[in-house]
Amino acid sequence: MDDKNSFATIVFTPSGIRGRVKKGTTILEAAQTLSVDLNSICGARGRCSKCQVEPTFGEFSKLNILSKHVSVSDRNDTEIIYRNKFHLSEERRLGCQTKILGDLVVDVPEDSQIHKQIIKKETNLRDFSLNTSVKAFYIEVSEPQLDSLESDFDRLRASLKKDWNVEEVTCSINVLKDLQEKLRKGNWKVTILLYYMGNSAPEIVDIHSGYSEIPAFGLAIDLGSTSIAATLCDLNSGKIIGSMGIMNPQIRFGEDVMSRVSYCMMEEKGLATLNRVVIEGLNELIVKITERHQIRLDRVFETVFVANPIMHHLLLGINPKELGQAPFPLAFSDSLNFKSKDIGLNLNLEGYVYTIPCIGGHVGADAASVIIAEQPQKLENTTTLLVDIGTNAEILLAKGEEIFACSCPTGPALEGAQISAGQRAAPGAIERVRIDPISKEPSFKVIGCEQWSNDKGFKENVSKVGITGICGSGIIEAVAEMRLAGLLDANGLIGSGAQTGSNRCISSDRTNSYLLYSDSKVSLSITNMDIRAIQLAKAALHASFKILLEKSRINRIDNIVLAGAFGSQISPEHALIIGLVPDAKVSQIVASGNSAGAGAIIALLDKESRKEISSIVKRVQKIETAVEPTFQKHFMEGSSFPNESSIHPELFKFKNIPDVNFNQKRQRRSAR
Questions:
Q1: Is the residue at 671 inside a domain?
Q2: For the packed helices 595-605 and 608-616, what is the interaxial angle rounded to 10 degrees?
Q3: Higher pLDDT, 590 or 114
């Protein structure tokens, strides 16, 4: 039994963990004994200040404890020096120096927690725990002796085991080269940075003489077919430092991934060329983002990549030709961990790359990363459809733990490419469109200008960026608004001026177009060829949705999540009007932003998420929709725009869509 005079009760908040410890035990020792999340990297030497705590005093009836001021030891010399030098607040104490003398309640502030909760209200990231692959340790190594054969590395390893219970550790030749100098310069005291890689022994990736707050940063990179987005993060605090993006330089060899597969197959040095240009582009992007935030390249210790299967292979220098033909096998689908220098990234020589696992076939790490970010498997009794729309769309249908996945080649039209007046989403691009159903006159918003085109002051403000084209969200809204205004029929035909009563509908080469905007410099129209490109993209999506529902035997969708940087810009209402998503209430459709990029950030900052996704991808049921016998049937059905309330009941509850038909041959046959 505990002797009441020699033991004390301690309660840690906010965890609520409590236990009995011997009086004279430090708060840090008690936390370690009770598995409380309290940080420390200096081995309880009072150097790092990571173990700051706040003893709380008073009577806590709910905890059944009376916590008194006399329950903690007075500040010792180490604390006094630290407080005077670094302005330690009055209510805070160093856990490694403060002894427990009686029953006590101790609060562990968020900044003192090892796996502190990262709450990202300013981004589209969900909350998660900070648990990176790198961790710093301060150790004091015994000096060499004449009667001992132990090397400096042997004694360093022994200190790690003794002080931090790190059983085994490795390091590279580059690290060993500096080991002896740094040990002696620090008077046998060093701070080391360990990199943890799965089940392997941790590796020393950096050594600093004496005690040091080693700056450590990481990059989360979403390597897309069209664009590359990088996010720079502080691995010590979990803070997002900044983001930056560039166009994928491989675009000049093919706008979509299949054209790049063809380039690899047709050109002798095609693979080497595509690999080289993407690595060069990545290095340029890395230099720009680190320079902008004044971070040295050698302070970046890990890079997490997410990509579709073909971009994944091209990044690694693996020929993707097998992905160009059925049954579309990947060379390797599991996650990979290797040195960044192995693929030519100019970062810390000991830094690592982690690639999120691919699911299989054309369903890649980008889809797996969406699962990390959105966690649809944790929504009980809820069916969620996640659609990451891009040049190649990834679609996930999840009902609890059961997840079905497929990819869908939508082409670049939905992002504004292959559209007569299309362009990327950049200043000057029309991004929002409204058309008056009576006058048939348009109004629009341009990226870089806050006003709508019919607002006062628009001409003056838009002159700063100009009006240069229509981006993806703009083309989707323009097509939907044309449908609502009776300018476009269900089959995708634009009416003539006589049929629509609008002089903006202009006849050309047996088809019609709708003039959205013109001035002395530019003329922007929506043509029937543009409509056809949108129809092909949405038809492919429709067929994929239908096949997923058939294969899963799911007959109800509760939530639709539009993922991806482009998906986040799409108006749910307009997506419903053109049939880009299955019929649903507008309230059931949400835009989640760049979920694949968000998943990469979470994987960078929480290594536990890597274990979870590696397990999940093995049970995802992948479906190759293009080889399904019903694909063509569903594709043809999906090419038309919604026009029947029996098929699209939710849409017709809030929108009255004109029943128009501009097929003159059909009209003549009907008249007979």
A1: no
A2: 130
A3: 590
Question: 361-387 pLDDT, tens per residue?
Answer: 889 999 999 999 999 998 888 899 999
Domain boundary among 476, 501, 526: 526
List of residues 6+ apart from 595 with CB closer than 8 A: 124, 369, 370, 373, 374, 386, 388, 561, 563, 564
pLDDT of residue 121: 35
Question: What residues does 352 pair with on adjacent strands?
Answer: 302, 339
Tokens of 532: 């056809």
Work out how many domains the chain is built from and give that number: 5
The confidence band for 230, taking pLDDT boundaries of 50, 70 and 90, is very high
- Residue-wise pLDDT for 139-161, tens only, equals 999 999 998 889 999 999 999 99
Q: Count of alpha carbons within 13 Å of 538, Cβ hemisphere only? A: 28
Decide if 303 contacts 350 (C-beta within 8 A): no
Q: Model confidence over 523-543: pLDDT tens digits? A: 999 999 999 989 998 999 999
Q: Is residue 662 part of a domain?
A: no
Give pTM, 2 decimals: 0.81
Could you tell me how many residues make up the chain? 672
Cα–chain-centroid distance for residue 617? 17
Element (H, E) at 434: strand 429-435
159 and 243: one domain?
no
Q: How far apart are the first and last CA of the chain?
A: 103
Q: Judge whether 594 and 568 are in contact, CB under 8 Å.
A: yes
Pairing of strands 128-129, 217-223: unpaired
Kindly tell me the burial class for residue 444, based on how many C-beta atoms sit within 10 Å of its own C-beta (0-12, 13-18, 19 or more): buried
Between CA 130 and CA 114 the distance in angstroms is 7
Alpha-helical regions (H) of 501-571: 528-552, 564-567
Q: What is the mean pLDDT of the chain?
A: 89
Q: Distance between CA atoms of 348 and 202, rounded to whole angstroms?
A: 17
Tokens representing 27 are: 């708060």
Same domain, 104 and 164: no
Q: What is the DSSP letter of 43?
A: S
